[in-house]
Write a structure and sequence with these properties.
The chain is built from 21 helices and 8 strands. Strands 3-8-4-5-6-7 form a 6-stranded antiparallel sheet, with helices on both faces.
């Protein structure tokens, strides 16, 4: 294993050169695709290179890229990199041009960009038997701990015996991804935006660094100030590496601190990266009234991209919808809150595709009235009135007409909660492919926020 690697350029420097190279060879790269950030790709490649003792080679490669002067002559120059393989095929010499092509392949494939939507998803890339593959083989063990953590919680999860082995170690936040490693009794932290590694001799300092990084990139979160929402994601191709000690620590945190874990945007992270834990939360919310109230608040909480916890469940864990409805059917207050939240999501979707201010104003007024109903019957009346309120404005939307109140929509979920047949509704959702494709996470770019009127 390697000690501190200081010569890793930051992603901005590398991306600028990748874009310049793409233009030079006659490509027509889209600036938005290049410059929105490749932190996920950089983090996975870093993690793999660290786990296979190839990090000096990767750092040297990136340095050669940013030193390119833009000329054809320098692209054809043979480059010698530390730790380079001697069996490189003759048809693929180690010219700077070929190093550019290799870096593009590594970074864009593992970024799991929108151009590959439906095939690659960032949150599933490292899962067991997923699409990640290397000379060492496919991933055979995968572990994820997601939620809102204190730095003490994070420290409990940093097991030197596990992280010192051949494992890829990632950290996901709302809009960014980083990586880390453990070698020679030292912890090393890598933020693609900064490039060079940071070294820590004490595990507590490393835990605090992870916590503080998530706090900074996530922006303002509701909930305790001593917690940060994130996901720790590790994977290996080695059969003999056992992640069960980490699973025990995480399960213990869920059992003892469920309210803390779902606070802030912790539920968002769990829905995206650890959806298998959601049934435990639903059961706890059903049996513990106090936790149920906190869980409902987390469903309505918004992340940096203005997405609610409920939206994250719909997008990343739609198979949990039935359990959510069962929970709502046993608690009328929870049922009202969820129906109201579904209506809000539907109105927000309408607002996002409205093309004139008059229509947007109508929708904003509907949102303002959303908190007035206090009973199921009042919510039914409000929902029934949305179609008639929007009807005169049909045609003023980017898709030609307003989203309709049907089973295959957020409004349809609200109807279901307001005593429409749950079984019929779920069949309709399955038939119409309601939930669509997941959005990309772990990028250092936030989506444009809806207008301020769309708040609850």
């Amino acid at each position: 294993m390697n000690g501190l690697i200081t010569g890793i350029p930051n992603q901005s420097e590398v991306i600028n050169k990748l874009f310049q190279f793409a233009q030079h060879i006659g490509g027509r790269p889209e600036q938005e695709v290049f410059f929105r950030g490749l932190c996920h790709g950089f983090s996975i490649v870093y993690g793999y290179m660290a786990a296979t003792d190839n990090l000096p080679w990767w750092a040297a490669l990136l340095t050669e890229l940013i030193e390119w002067d833009g000329t054809e002559e320098k692209l054809n120059e043979i480059i010698s990199l530390p730790g380079a393989r001697e069996d490189n095929p003759p048809e693929f010499p180690t010219t700077r041009r070929n190093l550019f092509l290799r870096a593009l392949d590594y970074l864009y494939f593992h970024q799991a960009s929108e151009s590959l939507e439906g095939y690659l998803q960032q949150q599933t890339l490292l899962q067991k038997d997923g699409v990640f593959e290397s000379e060492q083989g496919k991933i055979v063990h995968h572990f994820v701990a997601a939620g809102s953590f204190s730095f003490n919680d994070i420290e409990e999860l940093l097991d030197e015996k596990i992280f010192s082995k051949e494992v890829i170690c990632l950290i996901y936040m709302d809009t960014h991804a980083c990586a880390f490693r453990y070698a020679e009794d030292r912890w090393f932290f890598y933020d693609p935006n900064k490039g060079k590694e940071e070294e820590y001799s004490r595990k507590s300092n490393m835990a605090n660094r992870i916590w503080a990084t998530a706090k900074r990139y996530n922006g303002n979160e509701f909930g305790p100030s001593n917690r940060s929402s994130l996901s720790i994601d590790i994977a290996t191709w080695k059969q003999d590496i056992d992640f069960s000690p980490l699973s025990e620590v995480y399960t213990n945190l869920i059992d003892k601190k469920p309210i803390d874990l779902v606070g802030g945007t912790g539920l968002h992270m769990m829905a995206c990266y650890a959806p298998a834990q959601l049934p435990n939360l639903f059961t706890l919310a059903e049996n513990d009234t106090y936790f149920g109230k906190k869980f409902a608040a987390s469903l309505a909480a918004k992340d940096k991209n203005e997405k609610t916890g409920l939206e994250m469940i719909l997008r990343y864990a739609p198979d949990q919808l039935d359990a959510l409805f069962r929970l709502a059917s046993k608690n009328e207050k929870f049922q009202i809150k969820m129906a109201r939240l579904f209506i809000f999501i539907g109105l927000k979707e309408m607002h996002e595709c409205a093309v004139n201010e008059e229509t947007k104003t109508i929708i904003c007024n509907l949102v303002k009235n959303l908190n007035k109903p206090t009973s199921l019957d009042e919510l039914k009346t409000l929902l029934d009135g949305i179609d008639s309120a929007i009807l005169p404005s049909r045609g003023n939307f980017s898709q030609g007409e307003a989203p309709k109140i049907s089973d295959g929509s957020a409004f349809g979920h609200a109807k279901c909660l307001l005593n429409i047949s749950r079984e019929k509704h779920l069949r309709s959702c399955a038939c119409f492919g309601l939930f669509g494709q997941p959005e990309q996470q772990g990028q250092n770019v936030g989506n444009e926020k809806p207008d301020s009127c769309l708040t609850m």
